[in-house]
Design a protein that fits this description.
Length: about 190
């Protein structure tokens, strides 16, 4: 693999595992890079639901999708990721992406929080089809994320292994609290 950034790593795993032209959720839209990636994966026959609580995130994502002629493939939703079950049915989603933390270049005080993030992961698992996958990019360090990371990992540790495969990765030789890629497959 040419790039070892967490989002690129997660995209490569997703490409190797996900069904094309499915229903995908970008649970943390941010600047829209995962949304664009999922729109490309969706093709003409798929659909993407993308969530964020910041209007600026929706604006950035809408601009990015227009630039790449992908606007029609995604529904951009101004709502918290913990409410995604309002927009999709149980066991209807092929893939869900999370990128925890704050909007790059945005206000660090507006960031994902442990209580809503754990609820969102739980909601997302109920939305996944059997055989579906969830990707989590977990950031910690500086002014965000330590508590969120620990609560998410604690929640994932308790998932029944007969129903879920949880793979937790780490950048082993990087200091300064590197991000953590996590993948979950629903059996």
């Amino acid at each position: 693999m040419k790039n070892s950034q967490i989002t690129q790593w997660c995209h490569q795993i997703i490409l190797s595992q996900a069904r094309r032209e499915g229903l995908y959720i970008d649970a943390t839209m941010g600047k829209g890079n995962d949304t664009l990636f999922l729109c490309q994966l969706a093709g003409d026959g798929g659909r993407v639901l993308a969530f964020d609580i910041q209007e600026k995130a929706l604006e950035c994502t809408e601009e990015l999708l227009k630039k790449h002629h992908m606007s029609g493939r995604a529904e951009l939703i101004l709502d918290g990721h913990e409410n995604m079950a309002r927009y999709a049915k149980a066991e209807s989603v092929d893939l869900i992406c999370f990128n925890f933390g704050y909007l790059p270049g945005g206000d660090h005080q507006i960031a994902t929080r442990p209580e809503t993030s754990v609820r969102a992961v739980e909601e997302g698992l109920a939305l996944l089809k059997p055989g579906g996958m969830m990707s989590l990019c977990i950031y910690s360090g500086g002014d965000t994320g330590f508590e969120e990371k620990e609560q998410i990992l604690e929640y994932l540790k308790e998932l029944p292994f007969v129903k879920y495969n949880v793979i937790v990765n780490e950048y082993y030789n990087r200091g300064n609290h590197p991000p953590m890629p996590v993948f979950i497959w629903k059996g």
